[in-house]
Design brief:
Elements (H helix, E strand, L loop, with lengths): L1 H21 L5 H26 L10 H27 L2 H8 L2 H13 L5 H21 L10 H27 L4 H22 L3 H9 L2 H21 L4 H8 L2 H11 L7 H19 L1
Helix pairs in contact: 1-10, 1-11, 1-12, 2-8, 2-9, 2-10, 3-7, 3-8, 4-6, 5-7, 5-11, 6-13, 7-10, 8-10, 11-13
Length: 291
């Protein structure tokens, strides 16, 4: 079961990135609304299935404490989207995506510190290999970048904020999982709060109907919403079995899928050095999922 969920996390990680890259909607507010709307819509069938097949209460062990955790997760998610969007404007995307993986190392440490669980020297070494490989890949892919208009200092400041927010947000699934909240309830509540927050933004534009139709017709926002729904539910169950930092590190295998997609579908060039780094990432994350 754990291995199946890890594989799902890998494909969700890749699918979400590919979805964001392919959507034609360039407005960050509309993209956020579209993703949260699809996430909410897709959370409803999971709710119905859970009610039919499970004998446990849907909101079992759910209290104000857990609601505040989920509310915090929603706020951190919105803040991380804003900071990521800002950072990516001032940094090449290859560098932003590579450097951002540093948060995995911190998330692994704090997950172990606060929630315990198994963390061996092999885990630490392999996570270090994954993070360093992502950093190297980022700068290899950025080699030859001719755009000199980037504000690297400002970009790295916002990226540092994003890393901090992501570490805190990454700990929340473990917190609610250990309180007994099930993944279906967590996903439904988080999707509902996120949708409500994004609705405020969309309604303020007075183009609610037009925007709603546009995002519902965008297949790539559906893909992102689907990937988020699956990953949010899976994280709660994985939090009871594994250190979520390790889960995030294994999910980095998704980068290999993304790069292959860009090479085979988008016909983008990938250097020999990048292929070597991708192989290292593939091997390290695969072994990490096994040890």
């Amino acid at each position: 079961m754990v291995y199946c969920l890890l594989i799902l996390m890998i494909f969700c990680n890749a699918g979400e990135t590919i979805g964001y890259k392919n959507t034609k909607n360039q407005n960050q507010g509309d993209v956020l609304y579209g993703v949260t709307l699809w996430s909410f819509i897709l959370s409803l069938p999971t709710l119905i299935v859970y009610a039919i097949v499970s004998e446990n209460s849907f909101f079992g062990n759910f209290d104000l404490f857990n609601f505040l955790f989920i509310l915090l997760s929603a706020c951190l998610t919105i803040a991380s989207i804003i900071t990521w969007s800002t950072a990516s404007k001032h940094l090449p995307m290859s560098i932003a995506e590579g450097v951002s993986e540093i948060y995995i190392a911190f998330l692994t440490f704090f997950s172990w510190l606060f929630f315990g669980g198994r963390l061996t020297y092999w885990h630490i070494i392999l996570i270090a290999v994954v993070v360093i490989a992502c950093l190297v890949l980022a700068f290899i892919q950025n080699k030859g970048e001719k755009n000199v208009n980037y504000n690297y200092k400002l970009g790295f400041i916002f990226l540092a904020v994003w890393v901090t927010l992501s570490i805190i947000r990454g700990l929340i699934p473990s917190a609610v999982a250990h309180e007994g909240v099930n993944g279906i309830a967590y996903n439904f509540m988080l999707s509902s709060i996120m949708l409500f927050s994004s609705l405020i933004f969309v309604l303020s534009k007075k183009k609610f109907v037009k925007t709603t139709i546009a995002v519902l017709k965008d297949p790539w926002l559906f893909v992102v919403g689907l990937c988020r729904t699956v990953s949010q539910i899976s994280l709660i169950y994985l939090a009871l079995k594994m250190n979520l930092g390790i889960v995030e590190a294994v999910s980095v295998f998704g980068i290999v899928i993304i790069m292959l997609y860009e090479r085979l579908i988008m016909k983008e060039k990938i250097s020999i050095a990048s292929y070597i780094i991708l192989l290292i990432i593939a091997v390290a994350t695969a072994v990490l999922g096994i040890v």
